Structure formats: structure tokens, C-alpha cells
Amino acid sequence: MNFNLVLQGIFSALFIASVLRISTALVLPALGGLITDLAGSINISLEGTMLVSAFTGVIVSGFSHNVWLGVLGGILSGILFSALLAYFHLYLGTNIILAGTALNILASGGTVFLLFMLTGDKGSSSTLASGVVPTVNIPFIQDIPFLGTVLSGHNIFVYGAFLLTFLINKLLYNTKFGVHLRAVGEDPVAATSVGINARRTKFMAILISGFLASLGGLNLSMAYLSSFQRDMTAGRGFIALAAVYLGGRKPWGTVLAAILFGIADALSNQLGTLNIPSQLVQAIPYAITILALVVNGIRTRSQLIEQTKRFQERELSRANTEEQK
Amino acid sequence: MKKFFSNPAVREVLRIFIAIGSALLLGFIITLFISKDPIGAYKAFLTGPFTKFNRFGDWIEESITLTLVGLSVAIAFKANMFSMGTQGQLVLGALVSGVVALYVPLPATLRIPLALICAMAVGFIWGWIPGYLKAHLNANEIVSTLMLNTIAIKIYDYLLVFYIKPEDAGYNVSAIFPPEGTLPSFIPNVPFFNNIYTLFTKNTDITIMLYIVILAVIVAYYLVFKTPFGYKLRMIGSNIKFARYGGIDTKKTMILVFAISGVYGALAGAHMTMGIQHSIITNISISMAFEGIIVAILARNNPLYVPLTALAYGYLRAGANIMERSSDMSREMIAIIQALIILFVTAEQILPTVQKRIEERKEQNSNKEESSLPDGGSHEL
Questions:
Q1: Is B312 contained in some domain?
Q2: Among A199, B164, B237, B356, fewest CB within 10 Å belongs to which?
Q3: Does B364 map to a domain?
Q4: Going by C-beta distance under 8 Å and a sequence separation of 6 or more, which residues neighbour residue A74?
Q5: Any idea what the CATH number is for the domain that residue B290 is in?
Q6: Alpha-carbon distance B141 to A44, whole Å?
Q7: Measured between CB atoms, does B142 come within 8 Å of chain A?
């Protein structure tokens, strides 16, 4: 009968709402990862950026007693942090993966170091009364029985995430900057030869990813929870990168993949009551990502073979017609 | 003198020293601002590992693990493969060696080698997977290895919680390994060495892994620099397209690179369970794999230098722990120093940029002198 309870739990409006809330911290950095991946300079330090922003947001709002100052500080710190990555990668020639790793280490240790300095605690900022962003109740929709619970009453980051997905989609596919960005990602030399400033485009892409990751971090510390916890991102920045690949490097695909990870996370919480081991449930999205890499690889390979075949046939038929002449 | 500095090897060493030196200096400046007793705190940080015998032991033990993860990373990075998979390989190596050490009823002389071989085998397999995905399906190795890491950790946790943990245990920890399943001390227990043996076993956990690591370094060096496989590996590392045109089976080499890197990662895991913890614990490696990246970068991915950088780096880590215990500074300051070291060492353009600036300034100065001479020396400064 326990099983029925869990089933009821999964198919309830509250569960879907909780999936949306959990997924937001993945959707936002995943979009950041997507932009940098398309620009050809994959941002490994999403994890660190989220952590820095989550920390700064809590500290600023805690000391200034103003939620919005905290949000602003968090966003600025995230952008600055990713600017550091961009500067080292683009101007000092550091390999982006190594620079990103360095920044992740810096963020993980640096936030704990500063937390200890400012609050005297190494684990969390719970002694500091920090702010929480407001939730939004959508008029009319909130009164509809099922839909109201699912769609209404979330914090602003949840709505922001879906708005931003839409905007990023527009930015990537309907603006000049988006075309340049994807061109630089395909082939920086070719893009430069037609007059695109590859370095500046990549710089912008990394800054935008920093902005998106900072929102993801703030969502964790100022909405999902109301304090900063040591290493509270718990690998979300890396999961976000996986979501990019699982989603086929497209905005809506990436978001869907991020939500899939969110579902697995929420599901493993629910299944804790049953005898199904939560570790295995949590591992499922990672296994799916590997599968997606395999499927994607096979698809690209067969496409390549197909193209080569067509090319050969075309050349052959051309040669034949020339012979006939 | 000028010739001495233009020697690439000298510049390389100089660069690493400058990077570590400036990172340490920045760390000291931070300490100055924060600590009530900055000199004392920094002294504990810099001299800590030599103040007590057991601290010295901790340093060496940690350096052994760091050398193994460093080798794992260096072999992959040398081939320009950014494998992040060391963590997963380490975790599975720890799991498998621990299971053999706990359950296989064999005498120590057979059980320990078996445990190590099983760990290496599982590391080979876990490394082979991303290698295959990369070689045949062009899958991004960073993503695939990160995914495999998490899967490995989940498998580890699952087996530990549901099967390995004793029923009555409060924590998620296995039973303590029997003596047949723990690595013996690196000093043989024979009459002649009796005094040293008791001294070391009482204070430290330095095991025969010390010899295995030395062997591992030599094997890695020969593999990378003295064998046909190593030649192919380095060729792929410098230019994979060129290697392919040159007739090298890049796919096979790539897969082997990942798999061998996995063997070293798994050995590190075996050392952590059978040498240091003597049981299977949760969260066995939180950041060890990333530490391996630092060690490998400092060694410029040369297996021969890995133990040296591992010792240097292990020293900093051990020092940070001691500093935290004996002063008001927190251990996490080391993270700032770590990050700065990586950034300084890997920033290819820092030295050239500085050099260019200096040369430009020189040129400007000489231009000024030249242009000011015809005027009859009118100085406008």
C-alpha cells in the first residue's frame, strides 16, 4: 500500500510543482553551458559561479537587509567571476578546462573561507538572517484546482528560467549576435576571416553564461533554501553541462533534459519511503546522458556515411555523363 | 647568464617556482589581514609537516595518493584528452580492492596482490568506456567521464549501504579489514630493522605502496617516452590529425590511454582503502581527482616529475591542515593558493606578455634617447 502512496505522490500537482522548483537550479546554468558550448569555449566553472553567487547573494542581503541588493550582488559577482575565466582563457592563453577547474576550486574553498571569516561558521550561514525572494501568485490561474498548484506560487526564478529559455532561444537563432556566436563555435578561423571578432564574441558568451549560472546559484540560496550551505551546488554545474549534451545542444532540448534530471532528483526523494534504493534512481539520468552521447555519436556517424555516399554517387554520375559526351 | 635563462627547461622550472612563490605570497598577505598571529599561522603552514613524526607520515601517505592520481591525469592529458574520470576510477578501485580485502579468504601474500589486480582491472574497464565513446562515437570526454564518475559513486554508495555495511553499524562504514587485507608497512618486520619498524608502524601508515608507487612512476615514464605506444600517445597529444595521416591507429591508442589512466586512478583508490582507511567509508574522495589535475599540470604531464610535484603539493595540503589546528586561520585558504597556482602555471601568455611589455618599454626609452639627441639634449620628463 506504500507503493500506492508513492504513486499518488508522484502524480500529484505538488510533485510536479516541486520538480519545477528543483529543476530551476539546473535549467539556468544549463542554458549558460549551452551558450558557451555553442561558442566553442565550454564553461566548466558553472559550478563555481553558482556557488559564488549563492554566497554573495546571502551575504549581501544578510548585511544590507535588502533582498534585491543581495540578488544584484549575486548577479554581479557571478558575472565578474566568469569574466575572470574569460580573461584567463582568451587573453592569457590558459586552457579553459584547466582555468575552469582552478576557479571551481577557488569558489569551493573561497566561499567556505569567507563564510568562516564573516559568520564564524564553516557549514552554513544560518546565523545570518538573509532574505528570500518573493513568490508570485498568478491571478485566476491560482484558483484552478490542479493547474493552480502546478503553475502558481513559485518564486520569481522559476518563472525567470522559462522566460530566459525563450529569450536565449531568440538570441541564439534570431539575432546577429547569435549567428556570430554559433559561427565562432563552428570554426573561429573561418568566422574571423569574415570579420567577426571571435575573442569578443566568446567573451560575451562566457559573461552571459556567468549571468545565467548566477541566477541558478541565487535560486538555491535565496529561494529554494534561505541560507548558504557549504558546497550547496552539489555538482549541479556539472549536471547542467550534461543536460546540454542530453538536450542535443538546443535550448528547449537542454531545458527538457535539465527537467529530466530534476524529476530524477525529486523521484529519489519520494522513493526514499519505499525499499527502492535512492542511489540507483539518482544514477539513472547520468546513465541516460551516456546513452544520449552514444545515440548522438551513432547518428552523426551514419549521417556522415550517408553524405559521403551521396557525394560519391554524384561524382560518379557526373563522371559518367561527361564520358557519354 | 642570458643564455641560462633562455634555456627552456630553466624557464619552465623558474616559471613554476614563480607561480608557487607568488601564490604563497598572496596567501601570506591574506593571512596578514585576517589572522591575529599571522607569522605563527604561516609558520605552522610552511613547517608543519616536519614538526611531528606522525605529521611527516601523513604527508608521505597523502603524497602517495597524489602521485597515483597525478599519473592518471598526466597520462590522459599528455595525449591531450581531458579526462576527468580519475575520481570514478578511484572510487571503484577503492570499492573492489576493499571487497577483496574483506571477503576473499586467502592469506595476505595472495589476497593483497589479488585485491590490487582486481582494482587495476576495474580501473582499466572504467577508463576504457569513455575512451571507446571518444574514439568511435566522438563523445565529449569531459561530459562522459563526469557522468561515469557520478555513476561510480552511486554504485559505491549503493553497495556500501545495502550489502557491505554490517547490520548493526550506525554509520555507512564497512567492518575494519582483517590484517590479511591491509597493506603491510614499508619496512620489513625482521630483527635487524626492529627498532625502525616499531617507530614507523607506531606513528605512520606508510605502506609497501611506497615501492609500488616508485615502480608505477617508472612504468609510466617508460610507457610514455620509451615505447611505440608512448610515441603514438604523444603524437596524438601534439596533433591528432597529423597522427592519423601518419598512419597511427588513433582510435586504439586513444582507448588504451584512457584505460591505462584508469588503472592508475584505481590504484590510488586501493591505497586509500587498504593503506590509509582500512575500511570502506562514504565520501572516500571528495576532491582527490581535481588535486590530481593540479599535480599533473605542475609536472607538465611528465610522469617523472609527478612524484616531485605530488610531494610539494602534498606538503602544502598537510601544512594547511596543521595551520587550521594550531591557529585561527581556516584550512580553506589553501584553495585560494591552489587556484592561483593552476592559473599562474597554465597561463601561457603571462611571461610573454610581461616580456613584451619590458621590451616595448626598452624600445620606447631607446627611441626617446635617439630622438632627443639631435635636439641637443632637451629633456621633457
A1: yes
A2: B356
A3: no
A4: A53, A54, A56, A57, A60, A214, A217, A218, A222
A5: 1.10.3470
A6: 13
A7: yes
Alpha helices in B192-305 (DSSP H): 194-203, 209-225, 228-238, 240-245, 250-270, 288-298
Chain B neighbors of A280, CB-CB under 8 A: 154, 158
Three-state secondary structure along B159-193? HHHHHHCCCCCCCCECCCCCHHHCCCECCCCCHHH
pLDDT of A4 reads 67
pLDDT in tens, B194-222: 776 676 666 677 888 889 999 999 999 99
How many domains does one find in chain B? 1
User: Distance (Å) from the C-alpha of residue B210 to the closest C-alpha of chain A?
Assistant: 28
Q: What is the pLDDT of residue B119?
A: 94
Judged against a pLDDT cut of 60, whether residue B138 lies above it is answered with yes
Q: Please provide the average confidence, as pLDDT, over all residues in chain A.
A: 84
* Record: contact A235-B34, CB cut-off 8 A: no
CA geometry: angle A58, A63, A67, nearest 5 deg: 55
Q: Does B82 touch chain A (CB under 8 A)?
A: yes
Please give, rounded to a whole number of angstroms, the shortest distance from the CA of B343 to a CA of chain A.
6
Residue with cell 587573453: A91
Between A and B, how many residue pairs show a Cβ–Cβ distance under 8 A? 136
Which has the minimum average pLDDT: A188-192, B30-34, B295-299?
A: B30-34
What is the Cα–Cα distance from A98 to A105, expressed in whole angstroms? Answer: 11
pLDDT digits (tens, 9 = 90+) for A113-122: 888 888 877 7
Closest CA to B180 of B263, B116, B109, B128: B109
Question: Considering CB atoms only, which of A99, A116, A283 is closest to B343?
Answer: A99
Nearest to B347 among A93, A105, A117 (CB): A93
Distance from CA of B148 to the nearest CA of A (A): 7
- The answer, yes or no, to whether residue A244 has pLDDT greater than 70, is yes
Domain ranges of chain A: 15-234
Distance between CA B77 and CA B79 in Å, rounded?
5
Model confidence pLDDT, tens digit, residues B277-325: 888 888 777 677 778 888 888 888 899 989 998 998 888 888 888 887 7
Of B94, B20, B36, B76, give the one whose Cα is nearest residue B334. Answer: B20
Q: Which domain holds residue B170?
A: 62-327
Residue B350 forms contact with A (CB below 8 Å): yes
For residue B290, the chain A residues in CB contact (below 8 A) are 101, 104-105
Q: Is residue B2 pLDDT above 60, yes or no?
A: no
The predicted pLDDT at position B350 comes to 63
Q: Is the pLDDT of residue A220 over 80?
A: yes
φ, ψ of residue B281 in degrees (nearest 5): -115, 160
> Distance between terminal CA atoms of chain B?
33
pLDDT value at residue A1: 46
Best mutation target, B33, B36, B317, B346, to test chain A (most A CBs within 10 A): B346
CA distance A139 to A141: 6
Of A280, A286, A297, the CB nearest to B158: A280
- Model-level ipTM above the cut of 0.85: no
